[in-house]
Design brief:
Growth Hormone, Chain: A, globular
Length: about 425
């Protein structure tokens, strides 16, 4: 760290812990990554009209990007341990800008698969929830649930900021120019990370927030690929890993893979304009900003398995309600309220369960593997819903199946909580009995 950065940290420390500055910079990075990852929901129909491809073909590229977004998680966490958080994030943001800009040059499906599927998937997967988990584990010993809630809320905030603006830009200047604007935003975040994010608290002579011990770090000398699979081998022996993996699979199946990718197109099938559909997603993003932050606060105090059971159960019921609604203003508003508050609320309890079960060193990597399950589910929904829409000319079945899956996993989580009474943080033991 430079003298300038050390001086800034010293000045900030007089008012609040520098961990919150790092969290704010990473929040901004995650926000941009979330905005890039949510772009397919707005681009789906314009691409279909401009390039004359069917929806299943476009959905295939989107599903590859979503799958890589998740599969990159554990390897990104291992790379951060070996080569550093800042280097990893800076490289990912640069690749993100290149991949989004390159989509403006596509004319064939394989080109879209390469740019939007492979490159964007790798880039956004390196700046995802696993990054938030790494920052929280390094910089926060207290307020972990709240910090992770804020990190996870960046996903909804990314939708809030990007989707309505992107929809209006596409309507005004076309999808190619709008994509270049998003690429430029990715580049703007680079200096923020470079100047404000040190590698660890110890680099500034600080301790993690709430820690009474000095920050001592021994860099990993293990190959990141070996490290990622070694952590998986340790975690796979624990039933809690597979429970979280399965629940996060359903989470992806019912959020960004389905709603994030296909809700706008579903609305357009019912005569709702694209900008209005994007506004619906943005409204859900506002609600999730509160829901996810509140979920982080709750995860510090109550049984996390029970919280997850509530979240998945309510989400499933809201999806079932949507397919039987008439897509009127008031019925869509009711759906947006219940679903929006729940969108990413599952992340803080899932991370808390992983951190408590696997410890500070393995938890970020294993959370990456669990997040891979999320994106495999999301990729399944993105491709499956596109296929069902092409074959059956309706999204009805895709949304109903996702709702039923949410209710099923809620019952599994509740059964596990009742059987083991596990998942609650120590400070909340009395609150959960």
């Amino acid at each position: 760290m430079s003298k300038w950065q050390a001086a800034l940290a010293a000045k900030v420390e007089k008012r609040f812990h520098y961990a919150w500055v790092v969290a704010a910079a990473i929040f901004l990075s995650l926000l941009v990554s979330a905005g890039v990852r949510s772009m397919p929901g707005v681009l789906l129909v314009p691409l279909e009209k401009d390039l004359h491809w069917d929806r299943a073909t476009i959905s295939a590229s989107i599903s590859v990007g979503i799958a890589l977004y998740g599969l990159m998680g554990p390897f990104a966490a291992a790379i951060m341990q070996s080569f550093g958080v800042r280097r990893t994030v800076l490289c990912a943001l640069a690749l993100m800008a290149v991949s989004v800009a390159s989509t403006t040059l596509v004319h064939e499906p394989w080109q879209m698969m390469l740019s939007w599927g492979v490159l964007a998937g790798i880039a956004t997967g390196s700046v995802a929830n696993v990054l938030g988990a790494t920052i929280v584990s390094r910089w926060f010993k207290s307020h972990r649930g709240l910090a992770m809630g804020l990190m996870a809320a960046s996903v909804s905030t990314g939708q809030l900021v990007f989707l309505p603006v992107l929809a209006m830009l596409i309507d005004a200047v076309g999808w190619r120019t709008a994509s270049l604007c998003v690429a430029a935003v990715s580049l703007i975040v680079l200096p923020v990370v470079f100047f404000l994010v040190p590698e660890r608290p110890g680099a500034l002579g600080l301790r993690a927030l709430g820690s009474e011990e000095d920050d001592v770090h021994v860099p990993s000398k293990v190959n990141p690929l070996v490290n990622a699979f070694a952590a998986l081998g340790r975690g796979a022996r624990r039933p809690i890993f597979w429970l979280l993996f399965a629940s996060f699979f359903v989470c992806g199946l019912s959020t960004n893979g389905l709603v994030g990718t296909h809700l706008i197109a579903f609305c357009m099938d019912h005569g709702i304009p694209e900008v209005q559909g994007a506004g619906l997603l943005a409204a859900m993003g506002i609600l999730d900003l509160f829901g996810t932050t509140g979920s982080g606060w709750l995860s510090d105090r109550f049984n996390n398995k029970v919280l997850l059971a509530w979240y998945y159960g309510l989400r499933g019921l809201s999806l079932v309600y949507l397919v039987y609604s008439d897509f009127s203003f008031w019925q869509l508003t009711l759906f947006a309220v219940f679903y929006g508050l729940d969108w990413i609320a599952t992340v803080p309890p899932t991370l808390r369960l992983a951190a408590d079960a696997f410890g500070d060193r393995d938890a970020p990597i294993l959370f990456g593997w669990i997040a891979a399950g999320h994106q495999i589910g999301a990729a399944t929904a993105a491709m499956g819903a596109g296929f069902l829409r092409t074959e059956l000319d309706t999204y009805w079945h895709a949304f109903l199946l996702a709702g039923m899956a949410c209710v099923a996993i809620a019952m599994v989580l509740l059964g596990s909580a009742v059987k083991g009474r596990g998942g609650q943080p120590k400070l909340a033991a009395e609150a959960v009995g």
